[in-house]
Amino acid sequence: MDCSNIQFSLQKSKVDYQQLQMLFNQAAFWARERSINDLKTAVLNSNPVVTVWDDKTMIGFCRGTSDGVYRATIWDVVIHKEYQGLGLGRKLVETALSHPLMSQVERVYLMTTYQQNFYQKIGFQENRSTTMVLQNTYDLNPISLGNDSMIEVSKGVDTVSV
């Protein structure tokens, strides 16, 4: 396959959400049926966001979240099936890891179901000590502060009223 037109981008504004949704549906069993609105929210709240392009076709994607010092996580690594096995997935992850928000942290986490060997070749190691997960059901009770007052979280992430 001719890879001479392949380009990597760190520009969130370049994400084509229709193509991203199709890419997930085609090559990521864990991300099928994600809505465009949810994809936009995920990208908005992620940094870095890396896309891979063959001319005008998005063939790869991943995103990260980081506090810039202690912990970071790589999410949603996907390469179009026709482009797998060419080293693009490795380059995609390495591009995300080289971003300043990722490269300076103590630990970078990643979740994978079947691709442990792939990520081990990049340097990731199995970590059995951090295996907890909360399946958020969105019906958690508000926090009681006593005196019958409750915390209500408003739509603004930074605002809490008591």
Brief rundown of the structure:
With 162 residues, the chain is an alpha+beta fold.
- The percent of residues in helical segments reads 25-40%
Shape summary: globular
Rg result = 18 Å
N to C succession of SSEs: EHHEEEHHEHEE
Residues in β-strands, percent: 15-25%
Secondary structure category: alpha+beta
CATH homologous superfamily - what is it?
A: Gcn5-related N-acetyltransferase (GNAT)
* Main sheet: strand order: 1-2-3-4-5
Task: Describe the overall structure.
The protein has 162 residues and is an alpha+beta fold. It has 5 helices and 7 strands; from the N terminus they run βααβββααβαββ. The protein has helices at 17-27, 36-44, 88-98, 100-103, 116-122; strands spanning 6-9, 49-54, 57-66, 71-79, 107-110, 152-153, 160-161. Strands 1-2-3-4-5 form a 5-stranded mixed beta sheet, sandwiched between helices. It is globular, with a radius of gyration of 18 Å. The protein starts with 5 loop residues before the first strand and ends with a strand.
Topology of this structure?
Elements: E1 6-9, H1 17-27, H2 36-44, E2 49-54, E3 57-66, E4 71-79, H3 88-98, H4 100-103, E5 107-110, H5 116-122, E6 152-153, E7 160-161
Parallel strand pairs: 4-5
Antiparallel strand pairs: 1-2, 2-3, 3-4, 6-7
Keywords:
globular; Aminopeptidase; 5-stranded mixed beta sheet; 26% helix; two-stranded antiparallel sheet; alpha+beta; 162 residues; single chain
